[in-house]
Amino acid sequence: MPITRRDFLKHCGAGTLGIALSQFYLPEVLKIFEAAAAGEPPVLWLQGQSCTGCSVSLLNTVHPSIADVLLKVISVKFHPTVMAAQGDLAISAIEKTYKENAGKYILIVEGSIPIKDGGIHCTVGETHDGKPITILDWAKKLAPKAAAIVAVGTCAAYGGIPGGAPNPTGAKSVKEVTGKTVLNLPGCPAHPDWIVGSLVHVLRFGLPALDEHGRPKMFYGKNIHENCQNYFHYNNDTYAENLSDEGCLINLGCKGPQTYADCPKRHWNNGVNWCIGAKAPCIGCTQPEFPDGTSPMYAAIQDELRPKKVKINSLENTLVG
Amino acid sequence: MAEMSVKTKEKKKIIIDPLTRIEGHLKIEVEVENGVVVDAHSTGTMFRGFEIILQGRDPRDAQHLTQRICGVCPASHAMAASKNLDNALGVTPPINGRIMRNLVLGANYLQSHILHFYHLAALDFVKGPDAAPFIPRYEGDYRLPEKVNAACVDHYLKALDIRKKCHEMLAIFGGKMPCHISFCPGGITESADSDKITNFMWRLKEIQAFINDVYIPDVIAVAETYPDYFSIGVGCKNLVSFGVFDLDQKDDKKLLHRGVYTDGKAASLDPDKITEYVKNSWFEDSTDGLNPKFGETKPAPRKKAGYSFLKSPRYDKKVHEAGPLSRMAVSYLTGESTVKKLVDGVLSHFKANITALFSVLGRHAARALECKFVADSMVDWLTQLKPEEPTCVPSSVPNRSTGIGLTEAPRGALGHWVSIENQKVARYQVITPTNWNASPRDSMGQMGPIEQALLGAPVKDPENPFSVIRVVRSFDPCLACSVHVMNTKKKLLAKYRVA
Predict the structure, then answer these.
(1) Of A96, A263, A277, A290, which has the fewest beta carbons less than 10 angstroms from its beta carbon?
(2) ipTM of the assembly?
């Protein structure tokens, strides 16, 4: 009987890899591992007009570590930045997955998809007979047979900066190009927890509950401003006048009131800091309207988007009564 | 890949597309005759149009938008854009601001160099485990002794953890990473509190230990096992460094020096001598030969003569290589004493002279030594910070102005140029490191640095062209970093598949 991936994980002990990578050289360990990896849906991670920032962000995942993600959570058959293979070998890995795992693989796209001039502004390889393959070709071919489609980062989710005016290359989102249901994980880049948490949810339970912009509510359901460490300052009219001042940053361009994500609670890079924590205005990078609708980034938000003041007592007042 | 066309009986064409484990989209095409590369073409296959998108926007947004050119070295674009804006807005960051910017950039240098060696380049020398994503791979030239190989594979995992800590360290002053938030014209928004300094130092010490005890020994182990790569991938032998990590308030003194090395002579850098050529690039010919101060970006994707959407930047009309090798060599030649000690130490270990640096291994060694030099310097900078002193001075956007911001990304010389009219961006031009290194032939017909470095590379087995990928990756190309990138298709006379 083949050992399932879950059996193997139990065997290794939850949370830690348990073995050093070099033990792969012991044939029996490798055998267990291959059997384990075979149990999970294969993942194809494509890059369109991306900066690789979301892939680099994924490398920053803490719990689980990136090694655990790559070796235990998902089985990556193609990722242009981490895979050992190149050229024809790399293309073959995609074709093999497409043929052997139709309806089972998870398609992840990072970066927008340019459609102007037939998509020639972003080619991602070439066919065995030497024809360029555009990200547009690949997205259209691979999407219909994917078990789930995930757009990682604002470019893939909504077009992002390449789609900023005047959108020179006709950059579009994955949803616009494929017409399919897409799980959007925006952010410039996306937070590693948003990527890993959403993938685990998809693998275990299917699509999570999404908001009107296709974002999982569990990560993007809350407003930045309403959960901000400076919320009290705003409601008490304590504003930063210059960059690097203490106080609410709304007059310096903060787009927190129009932006939805759990940054104020989750923080970034192992909880070290976050944008407003560094006294810098939020630039609204998880929003469909980023960047055009969230800039100029240092100009105050339009009056009609300014939140109503809420009468709140400070913690001190509450305690005193 | 391994797709080849037979031109003559002896001549074979090898195309590698996609070349993976780089940042972005790159295609490499070489012609092999009698087992040696005789011709090479480097093609960037992606174009987004950042310089066009920036036009008409608030100039201060450039700091945020240009970071998204490259998610591997966004801190470098933030530095170039901020220096550019400091210059255009007429402000100078306070001492704390200057040092904190250096610490943020330095943290990403360490991250980038470690990531490049272990996760992007090492798998060309170190045989990974027989499991995805380590297979499939090229076969036939992994030479490390089994024990050393196994240690390097374990270090692959350790390095993942260390590079993550580099980003955590960066976020202390940067807010988050990739694409940190805190740089602004006139300095940095975050403050230099004692707890932040301590936090930063604690992480830095751990990273320093990894560089000294693991990274540098591993590079030396690879070099000892593959000594032929001290003479493969020589390249153009001209070097350009914009200099990086300001050590004073006047943009004068830098940790890694500014300068050029052309035709065997070191000289100071004159930014007016930089010009970009487009005859073989998919841009309109009317924009050929411009200094970026007057540069234009007019894509012409159907242009027949083009084979890349990288422009070809040249210094004094000559081909120059950028990167850690350029920075370390320029600093060495201009008398940086620590750099001299580090480089001489490695050269004497290998009983090699300075010309051995022009090679695949020379680039890896320069990168590793630079990593140590930067990490050690960051310890000093941390102790120079003064808590509660300002980190930023206020600024405003003038009606009309121009700016220039020169720095060095981990991969090499990076420049931003801006013209401001009516408080908006009228022109924004960027020259990235990979523009220098992966550029196609210029309008004078000179091959780009990577193209030149490929010439003469031995290809024993066209199905497993190890030397080609080792040469290309020694430059640490960062193709999305190349703002001007697009696809082209060369016609092949005949072809058959190898795979």
Answers:
(1) A96
(2) 0.91
